[in-house]
Write a structure and sequence with these properties.
By secondary structure, the chain is an alpha+beta fold. It is built from one helix and 18 strands. A five-stranded mixed β-sheet has the order 2-9-8-4-5, with no helix packed on it. The chain starts with a helix and ends with a strand. It folds into two domains: about 100 residues, Immunoglobulin-like (Sandwich), CATH 2.60.40.1220; about 100 residues, Cupredoxins -  blue copper proteins (Immunoglobulin-like, Sandwich), CATH 2.60.40.420. It binds copper (II) ion. The site of copper (II) ion (CU) has 5 residues, from strand 18.
Length: about 250
């Protein structure tokens, strides 16, 4: 074999190796997409990419999350002092479903707006305008969906005035439940490790701040009365896999 033929052969082998790896890469991206669709819900929501404004940190409901009931409010967390005229708008098919005025929490790091408990199933776009003390503003958006069919596997515990959730083997038990308005929910830590009850998101914990507990040692408990109708996603700050959902209905 001539030297020239050998060089061409090596180049061909390199091209085929490169082609093989790029094809496999495409497949894995496709696989990931399908997994996400399965996870979302029977309605198959097609979420767009979010746009994050300057100083944005987190939001609840999370982008691309599917809730089994209306959120009680939308909260967006920032790492810089907010100022008027910051605002939130939440629309589906051109109709506004946020309620009342946009509120800036007293720590100036949270934009908050109430939401319609009777909002229909579907995909919602949250547009926000975050403004700073120097009067400059930045826009951003994210999306979430409501699909009440996803509440079917939830444990229905309505018409009880008091309910206990065990924190056991790094799980909330029951994990997903439906309670009536004005139910007292009590969490008890059965594990040797410390657990927390924290409203989403992490680490801001701003969605429903009353729900946040101190560090709970074994045997300690935390209780909250839920009055407002809607969805309450929460988690334990010490264990990322430890999540739960309460629907007040
Ligand atoms: Cu925990």
């Amino acid at each position: 074999m001539s030297k020239k033929a050998l060089v061409i052969l090596v180049i061909l082998i390199l091209i085929s190796i490169f082609a093989f790896y790029s094809l496999n890469k495409d497949e894995s991206v496709g696989g990931l997409k399908n997994e996400n669709l399965e996870k979302s819900s029977s309605l198959n929501f097609d979420f767009n990419r979010p746009k994050k404004s300057a100083h944005y940190e987190t939001n609840t409901p999370a982008h691309a999350s599917v809730l089994a009931a209306s959120p009680i409010n939308i909260v967006i967390d920032f790492n810089f002092d907010l100022a008027p005229p910051s605002s939130i708008s939440i629309k589906k098919d051109g109709v506004e479903y946020s309620v009342g005025e946009t509120v800036i929490d007293s720590n100036k790091l949270v934009l908050r707006k109430n939401f319609d408990a009777d909002a229909p199933n579907g995909l919602y776009k949250v547009d926000y305008n975050a403004c700073w003390p120097d009067r400059s503003c930045h826009q951003g958006y994210f999306e979430f969906a409501i699909d009440r069919d996803t509440a079917v596997p939830f444990q229905d515990m309505r018409n009880k005035s008091e309910i206990t959730i065990r924190m056991s083997e790094i799980k909330f038990l029951p994990k997903d439940l439906i309670v009536s308005p004005n139910t007292k929910v009590i969490w008890v830590n059965d594990d040797d490790t410390i657990h927390y009850v924290n409203t989403d998101s992490h680490p801001a914990h701003t969605y429903f701040e009353k729900q946040n507990s101190k560090a709970l040692n074994k045997g300690e408990l935390h209780s909250v009365v839920f009055s407002k109708i809607g969805a309450y996603p929460y988690h334990c700050s010490a264990h990322t896999e430890m999540t739960g959902n309460i629907i007040v209905q």
